[in-house]
Design goal:
It is built from 12 helices and 16 strands. By secondary structure, the chain is an alpha/beta fold. The strands form 2 sheets. Strands 1, 2, 3, 4, 5, 14, 15 and 16 form an 8-stranded mixed sheet that branches. Helix content is about 35%, strand content about 20%. Bound molecules: zinc ion (ZN).
């Protein structure tokens, strides 16, 4: 049993003063109140918030940072970036894959992220068919102390009715039966306090529709979340219309009846009608603003997400940048730039930062089906502790503290994080530095 009492604690709607959070030996929050037994000393000048939930990541792509940002042959695109990513894949053996993955997870945790949904498709050793890299992801997450939903990717084709390209052979999963055998193997190795599994069909390009339906049905049967890349690129939509006669979102809406366990990642070029249908069905939309900007993907139509922060999740995706603070504000800023208005993600009370924080915590936790994202009794004790003495927050009043954090600061505020009540300090507090 331990307790934490920060000067300010985010309790869901606002920062409250002098709140004590009690953590049971099992790593879950057991009580929240003003006066509790066994109380800790107050952490002055610190704010406790739920740890961020990063709902979409490809951790090994951290190895691309700083690469592919020059364009001597003219402008690039998602597709030219993908060639660079395949070059990185060709370089990775078990050791370098583990190094980049663990490094990435450690950087996430230092930025305040306590849970990650790792959309994992690089399954095999070079030249192999061994699924050896699946366990490495779990081991790297354990070493970094981050909670993980391993979103294990089914990957079958190199395009509509096309065989895999040589660079994609290490992603292949065979038929659904062998995929489920591997999932069962992985389930036996999970640390049930911090690790879970989710089902993924990589994209409409990489999995034939019949197999998407089969995987989705089985995910419902096994009570596992189901994630899928959706309509990140116009080319994918054009090819899908040519092949199936409908855009991917419409095809899936008609074939799957996606519900609350379904997360569409990106939905960059999804039209308003499909977006409304997905959300009405309870599905989640995961936006990855800094990656979508870096790749030049485009900006999703999100007006239907505005009042639904719990169905909106955020992801660091390519990990070109790891900052939940930037993801939050760029979700809003991209919309401001295209709409020439401010306050796009405002809630019923007109507050924007509160919605963005809800997406970066609760929305992600719901998308991954993990008991995190909120400081409330029964949830995991997953927190980020923020430094209120940092110069970025100088002169900020307590009633605009969250707005200042979301729009005016970044991960330099993160003093420490806890996952299941286990704390890691990330840097010396500003006043001691
Ligand atoms: Zn992705």
């Amino acid at each position: 049993m331990q307790s934490v009492r920060a000067e300010w604690t985010w309790t869901g709607e606002r920062f409250e003063r002098d709140v004590t959070v009690e953590i049971a030996a099992d790593g879950r929050i057991s009580a929240i109140g003003e006066k509790l037994a066994g109380e800790a000393g107050e952490l002055r000048n610190a704010a406790l918030i739920p740890g961020f939930v990063n709902a979409h990541s490809h951790a090994f792509q951290r190895g691309l940072r700083g690469r592919g940002e020059r364009f001597p042959a003219g402008s690039g695109s998602f597709w030219s970036w993908r060639e660079a990513m395949y070059e990185l894949v060709a370089e990775l053996d078990a050791d370098s894959f583990r190094l980049w993955t663990e490094r990435c997870f450690r950087e996430m945790r230092a930025s305040g992220i306590t849970s990650v949904g790792e959309f994992h498709y690089l399954h095999h050793s070079p030249g192999g068919d061994d699924f050896a890299f699946d366990r490495i992801v779990l081991e790297a997450a354990a070493a970094a102390g981050i909670r993980i939903a391993l979103l294990n990717v089914f990957y079958q084709t190199g395009g509509f009715d096309k065989p895999l390209e040589p660079a994609q052979l290490r992603f292949r999963t065979g038929d659904p039966d062998s995929y489920w055998k591997q999932m069962e193997q992985l389930a036996r190795h999970l640390d049930s306090d911090r690790q879970s599994l989710g089902v993924v069909a990589h994209s409409i390009r990489a999995v034939p529709l019949e197999q998407i339906i089969e995987l989705h049905d089985e995910s419902l049967h096994r009570h596992l979340v189901f994630h899928m890349h959706l309509e990140e690129q116009r080319r994918e939509i054009d090819e899908c219309v040519a092949h199936y006669g409908k855009p991917p979102s419409e095809l899936l809406l008609d074939a799957l009846q996606p519900g609350s366990s379904f997360t569409a990642v990106h939905a960059t070029h999804t039209d308003a009608r499909s977006m409304r249908r997905l959300l009405a069905a309870g599905a989640h939309i995961c936006v990855t603003p800094t990656t979508e900007a870096n790749l030049g993907d485009g900006i999703p139509q999100v007006e239907h997400l505005r009042m639904l922060p719990r169905q909106t999740a955020l992801g660091s995706d390519s990990n070109a940048r790891i900052s939940p603070f930037e993801e939050m504000r760029w979700l809003e800023y991209a919309q401001r730039l295209v709409s020439e208005t401010r306050g796009v993600f405002r809630d019923a009370g007109g507050e924007v930062a509160r919605s963005l924080l809800a997406s970066a915590t609760i929305g992600g936790a719901r998308s991954l089906d993990i008991d995190a994202g909120e400081i409330s009794v029964g949830r995991w004790a997953d927190f980020a502790l923020l430094d209120l003495t940092h110069p970025a927050l100088e002169g900020v009043s307590s009633d605009s503290l969250l707005d200042a954090i979301v729009f005016g600061a970044s991960e330099e505020l993160v003093l420490a994080t806890a996952v299941g009540g286990r704390w890691v300090e990330h840097r010396t507090p500003w006043q001691r530095g």
